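quick one, 361 residues, struct below
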Amino acid sequence: MKSFIKRFFLVVMPILIIVSFVNYFGDAANIFKKDYEKNIANDILKGNNVTNIANHNERLLQKYLINNASFCPDVLMLGASRSMLINSTYFKGETFFNNCVSGATIEDLIAIIEMYRQKKCLPKKIIIGVEPYFLNSNNNQKRWETLELEYQTFINQTANDSLKKEDNLIFKTEVFLKEFFVFKELLSPSYFKSSVLELIMSKNSDPFVTDKRTNKTFTKLFDGSVNYDVGYREASNEMVEEKVSSFLARDISNFENFDKLDISLQSKFVSLIDYLLLNNVKVEFFVAPYHPKVYEFITHTAKYKNVIKSETFFESLALKKKIKIIGSSDPNKFKLDKTYFYDALHLKEKGVGIFFNSVAE
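---
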């Protein structure tokens, strides 16, 4: 037994120490850099653009941006990555901020609005980039859980104190489990591979302030909107077509097992809209179009029928609540051909301009 323990400390422990060292300092996904998002937020809130942003927790960044902001925006943009390019140039004479996050869900919308509510800082107008998978209970989106506390606070505003205490206990348990997951990554072999590459290839991997809107690397602008890295922006038409073909060749994320429009999610969304309207917030919906090939595929594939039905739900709600709708999932309505898209789902700036230049005018 003593011999085994000795071999363990002589052989295994050095390996574990090396793996932990590389994972911590290489940190390919910025798990251990506690101030990564906070520093980005601080620079943005000083009115700067920040580039060279890599893997980060988008929800945590929003938390720092909202809680530390010294102003209340007149216009707020909420939604997923398909709405991230919408920026302040379309809203002259108004303060604007884009709080979109990748893979946004109804829970994200609620949590972000709750943070503004707590600051007594609800904007005059909120534009929501609505997505079909908002209504799909099988969308497999879990990233919103970073904002679990804010979400639960909004949902339980009228709940009694004992219920709120119970929710806080659940939240603290979840925080512990997430911290345990972070610790586990210190010893992860797969994370080790990524972190080794990060140590070798990234000499200057930290984000930095820039006066340029367009840069070689991914950039977060002073108004919360984004500009993509040069490889994404300047992809050839052939490369874009390859992306679209690859997208259509596999299961479409968020749209799989979309068996029905979930009643509970519909109810949450309607309740959120009612809350905003009751508090004199003007609400508008933005429906981003799909690449022409993607739209054609979705509309002619039976298992994706609820993707289109979801737009009907948002249209009906808008009509009932007198909410303006900008855009459509159908690119043909606005004569948007393949040259208007970065990939299967995301419009280029000139595509976004077609919708929001007209709004500004």
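The longest strand covers residues 282-287.
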